[in-house]
From TrEMBL, chain A:
EC number: 7.1.1.-
UniProt-annotated location(s): Cell membrane; Endomembrane system; Membrane
Entries under PANTHER family matching the protein: NADH DEHYDROGENASE
Protein known as: NADH-quinone oxidoreductase subunit N
Transmembrane parts of this sequence: 28-51, 58-83, 103-121, 156-177, 183-204, 216-240, 271-296, 308-329, 341-360, 367-388, 394-415, 436-455, 475-500, 512-534
Record's catalysed reaction(s): a quinone + NADH + 5 H(+)(in) = a quinol + NAD(+) + 4 H(+)(out)
Name of the coding gene: nuoN_2
Top-rank taxon: Bacteria
Membrane topology field: Multi-pass membrane protein
Automatic annotation (TrEMBL), chain B:
Any Pfam family: Proton_antipo_M
Keyword terms of this UniProt record: Membrane, Transmembrane, Transmembrane helix
Start-end of Basic and acidic residues biased regions: 466-478
Subcellular location(s) of the protein: Endomembrane system; Membrane
Keyword presence, Transmembrane helix: yes
The organism of origin for this protein: Streptomyces violascens
Family matches, as Gene3D superfamilies: 1.20.5.2700
Residue ranges of the region described as Disordered: 449-478
Gene name linked to the record: nuoL
Keyword Transmembrane annotated: yes
NADH-Ubiquinone oxidoreductase (complex I) chain 5 N-terminal domain boundaries: 69-119
Membrane protein topology class: Multi-pass membrane protein
Name this protein carries in UniProt: NADH-quinone oxidoreductase subunit L
Chain segments annotated as transmembrane: 29-50, 86-106, 118-135, 181-203, 215-234, 246-266, 278-297, 317-337, 372-394, 414-432, 483-502, 522-544, 627-645
Boundaries of every NADH:quinone oxidoreductase/Mrp antiporter transmembrane domain copy: 135-420
Amino acid sequence: MSSSAVHSLWTTAAEGKLDKIPAPHIEYAQLAPTLIVVGAAIVGILVEAFVPRRSRYYVQVFLSVVALAAAFAAVVGLAAGGYGTTKAHIAAMGAIAVDGPALFLQGTILLASIVAVFTFAERRLDPVAHGNKVDSFAAQAASVPGSDSEKAAVKAGFTTTEVFPLALFAISGMLVFPSANDLLTLFVALEVFSLPLYLLCALARRKRLMSQEAAVKYFLLGAFSSAFLLFGIALLYGYAGSVSYATIADVVSGSVQNVNPALAGTMGNDALLLIGGAMILMGLLFKVGAVPFHMWTPDVYQGAPTPVTGFMAAATKVAAFGALLRLLYVVLPGMSWDWRPVMWGVAIITMLGGAVVAITQTDIKRLLAYSSIAHAGFILAGVIATNADGISSVLFYLGAYSFVTIGAFAVVTLVRDAGGEATHLSKWAGLGRRSPLVAAVFAVFLLAFAGIPLTSGFSGKFAVFKAAAEGGAGALVVVGVVSSAVAAFFYIRVIVLMFFSEPKADGPTVAVPSPLTMTAIGVGVAVTLVLGVAPQYFLDLAHSAGVFVR
Amino acid sequence: MDNLIALLIAAPLLGAAVLLCGGRRLDGIGHWLGTLLAGASFVLGAVLFVDMLDRSAGHRTVTKHLFSWVPVEGFQADVGFQLDQLSMTFVLLITGVGTLIHIYSIGYMEHDENRRRFFGYLNLFLAAMLLLVLADNYLLLYVGWEGVGLASYLLIGFWQHKPSAATAAKKAFLVNRVGDMGLSIAIMVMFTTFGSFTFPAVLGGADGASSGRNTAIGLMLLLAACGKSAQVPLQSWLGDAMEGPTPVSALIHAATMVTAGVYLITRSGAVFNAVPDVQTVVVIVGGVTLLFGAIVGCAKDDIKKALAGSTMSQIGYMILATGLGPIGYAFAIMHLVTHGFFKAGLFLGAGSVMHGMNDEVDMRKYGGLRKYMPVTFVTFGLGYLAIIGFPGLSGFFSKDKIIEAAFAKGGTEGWILGAVTLLGAAITAYYMTRVMILTFFGEERWKHAKTPSPDQPSVEPAAETHGAHDEPHPHESPKSMTIPMIVLAFGSVFAGGIFGIGDRFVKWLEPITSFSHGDSPVGQWTVTAATIVCLLVGVGLAIAQYGRGPVPVVAPRGSLLTRAARRDLLQDDFNHVVLVRGGEHLTRSLVYLDHSLVDGVVNGTAASVGGLSGRLRKLQNGFARSYAVSMFGGAVVIIAATLLMRAV
């Protein structure tokens, strides 16, 4: 950047006549889903402040579920009003897109979140402590693990009901993330949903040190990746002179030049575009857990409270892939020749890496973490398709995958021994003999992960691979199928372990959950089977929602 | 009227469904229901026959489209029927003989506790066989083809508590599978060649198709015919199939199912006519089987197996006739029908003899039975005269015509075929006379058949008990058994004359099979005279050998040929050495390959993936700093790659 350009950058704002800042025009109705969730989160904080401790849990659960349901109703209302198709447009002064993919993903996030909140609210699994029913979260997050204050907090029957507003904040960020239509909104949304998640990860009631370690790792690496993202945003701004998706896309395609005279020195510099674009991609790939930005995943999935893991694995992935899709399909289609080969490589090592490393895992939560990495690779294959089917198949896959994931982690919360959840695989041996129903349900989820026909996993995988093959990524499909075969090994291995091994004498017990977790698992199984047996309606829905507005 | 065609099949099908699904509560009426529905089918057939006769020869074909079976674009399969003179002939034979054998079985199977199931299977067979001959396309024909195979399997193995019956059923099923494969391949080739498998499309298009295609279709159809009709080289199952109840042998393994191959070749005449080379193969197969079956029939002491050899041989005549082309089709079918009468009659007679002889099948333990079973003797005797071609009886007209047609083929070929058929006639006369003498004439060897045992010191037979060691009490069979035999005997006597005199049958079939006289180098009467001479030679030899002295109860060792013939001319040994051993070797080497090579590759891959997994896992060391380095490295690589892509 030449010195005169830098000079003009500094002086333009000062010398120019400042207009009055116009009041932004905000379409509140179209932003209703996000606004409802944010509002409920704020109310939730007030509840923490003003409602007596005894009632907080009930008020928070009620508030969260109602808010999420209302937000989902708003999404459905918008979709029914045609905002997903004909009336799709950019709202809030160009910051938020209201279109098919956004609404579809918001709906998916909200439904998954409702189910996840059910698992958050479960209070029957842990034994009653000092006459108080307890959930999966620490009695008092601020107390040092093993200290007297922790014991006092447990004895007093404290519960961290803040998890509900925290989750609502995270959800609000996730709702904005896939619909963000400029880079700054994207970044703000990212932080809005990341920060509460860091906190939630640290809140496990059992194995608190591990939980806190996971949270710190997640926070450090998350901050690291945010820095990359932010730097990438700055570089793209330097290239295009704007943070708006549409403008950047126009500059990339060459139809608009000289957007911002103040940046004349840097605008159109392809190096900025390429480096900036790659860095933003990297930030998003971190969130979806793609290799080599995946290393936080196993540690965090293992350490976080299992309901949070399920929530994170499902909803974060949906939001992050939504943002990734929009970035690649709206902002950077003009340079798809540049990013496609790179994404090819990322997809291949993600699929293979996730599947291969999962083989030697001995902890069920880590196993599912690697499984989620492999699935990120499969979804990336659909993203790379760069055709209409690519969008719709990814949308479908995300919907199918999120319910399987939450259901699977919900089952993990049920298998317990004296130390809490019994996550070591050896303890699952013979589970099918002791608790056939739980084992059978888990087997259904595993088969769905493996992509066996008549489960949603098969429909989703078939859709993304078909899109990828039609998009000219045949080799990617081959790698995907090979990884699926490798992955099938460790999924089936767990089934074999559950049904064909002798139960251990000191094996875990299966806790009988409240209707909340039962509902979560039941919804997971139902969605898995419905999308597996009769996926056409939902495929059509995803297809009709699969057009980005620009 | 054409709606009746579907009913024709539906009646026995309904019977099969009701009898097989109805359970034990139908035990009391099952056999009546089965017989009634078979009879109903015959009546329907007769009505349709009368209706057909009302129309002129060119307008007798009726088609009936029932429903669309596989309505896929580019692949249309329909369920439709075609009733013409050819299928009408079969319908009357199948339902007529079938009904008679149902009646016979009422008596024959009286003491079997599974009689209802037996009738269910018989009805199933009738339905499948009718479907086979009435289908208007090859795919539907294939359904019937498999259906009769299934019924045959179930009925051969009806007494599955006997290991021999179970094995025989399995053998028949497996050997037939080879033939069925031929039919399915033929249908596939038809579809790729003509884009359809309806009779009009295939037969009408055969002339225009390449000779390679026609050859493939023809050979595959011949393979199918060999399997179903027990022709060399797929003949080995028929002898063993005699393990089934005798009515089954009469209906399925003599009169109807085994003739399906003749039907198939006649029906597909246009394909065979287009490729004379394949016709030559057909003729060879027929000729070889003709002699093969006859020789086997000479050596067997088991009355049913002797008759089975005869069946094989007679069908050889028919196949040979079909191989002659338009000269022979009509005669093949005519012999098929007369054979249906007399061979069914012979089997029923054999069943009647066995019924009276404690299920003894060894003819060396019969003898002099004509006094004890007069009706059986007379009807069996008429069947015997018919099959050897005694002038004036059915077999005379039909077999004589085939021999004439064989000569009419012309050239050296004609002479060879003529000689083979004449030789066959002589052998037929020989072995049938042998059966006749051993069973009904001579010494009453069964009186000495009882082996004295220390447990039963008394020579006095226990009254009314039927143990294996008891001396048999030959007696005439009940009316339900004799009446069908009498009816069939009428057919054996008169059918040939009715068909043959004035070429009635040829004219009846001519619109379907076409007909040509050929040019015989020898006169019609010369052939007839030669046939009669052969007949007399055969009969004379048999009388000389068996009629003049006592027949040993235990078979003598016999010549090499006799011993080979007793072992079905070593067919099973051949199959065992070549196919079974070969198959076992193939399997073993494949298993070895699977264990060493395939498993090796699979296990090796699994092990290397596992090892890789273990190493990669170490990268996940739990330190956030290492993770950050990995991310940074990834970012560098991605950025570098992106820039590189642009540079390249």
